[in-house]
Amino acid sequence: MPRTPEENERIRQAAKDKIHAAAMTLFIKKGYHATTIDDVAKEGQISKGLLYNYYKGKEELLAAIVRIRIEQIAEVMETVAALETPEDQLRHIVTGALDNVYRRPDVYRFYLNLQTRPEDDHVLAAYSKQLNEESRKQFEAQCAIFERLGVKEPRMRSLYFSSALFGAALMISTYHEGFPVEAMKEQIIREYCARSGE
Fold first, then answer.
1. What is the rounded CA–CA span in Å between residue 58 and residue 67?
2. pLDDT at 6
3. Quick check: 98 and 172 in contact, CB under 8 A?
4. Are 127 and 62 within 8 A, CB to CB?
5. Is residue 193 within 8 Å of 90, Cβ to Cβ?
6. What is the pLDDT of residues 33-86, one digit of tens each?
7. Looking at residue 178, what DSSP letter applies?
8. DSSP-assigned letters across all residues of 33-100
9. Residue 66 · residue 130 · CB < 8 Å
10. Residue 4: band (very low, low, confident or very high) from pLDDT cuts 50, 70, 90
């Protein structure tokens, strides 16, 4: 019996997910430039032919991984926008950001490294710009949240908030074992996510 279009799509997506996971593992471990398509196929335990069926090469694979990251950030901000109060919106940002870093500090470091690549690296600089543009949009959305919160100088408060989150994320990814994630979340929420915390 032939497969349904839905089954075909599910199989296709499962193969792509496997390729993405293998590529991410290797990009983290070896770096983008040192990783080959052969490495990705071997890591994912798939044929090179199947990999090329989905991606023309390594850069197209990197582009897909970056696109997924950008979609994830956009989804978080859509969820935030649907919450009723600015306090709840900021709490969601703090909790989601720090929990994600704690779960996968290696992935956080990969994207941080990508975002801070030198402009001379012409391949990676383009993806760095895409991620930084998405971060800029997130920052602007945060500014609007702080404005709704009624704080003085919402842009400066958003900048302080982002800096605190960035610093906490960097600490979690660097000193993962024993880092007091829950206490850090509570501290940032107490300082930034209430109207009285001006």
1. 14
2. 84
3. yes
4. yes
5. yes
6. 999 999 999 999 999 999 999 999 999 999 999 999 999 999 999 999 999 999
7. T
8. TT--HHHHHHHHT--HHHHHHH-SSHHHHHHHHHHHHHHHHHHHHHHHHHSSSHHHHHHHHHHHHHHH
9. yes
10. confident
Element (H, E) at 168: helix 154-174
Tell me which H or E stretch contains 119. none
Residue 197 banded pLDDT, cuts 50, 70, 90: very low
- Stated length of the chain: 198
Confidence check: pLDDT of 196 > 60: no
Contacts of 72 (CB under 8 A, 6+ apart): none
> What confidence tier does 7 reach under pLDDT thresholds 50, 70, 90?
confident
191-195 contacts, C-beta under 8 A, 24 or more apart: 191/164, 192/90, 192/94, 192/157, 192/160, 192/161, 192/164, 193/87, 193/90, 193/91, 193/94, 194/87, 195/87, 195/149, 195/150, 195/151
The pLDDT mean for the chain works out to 91
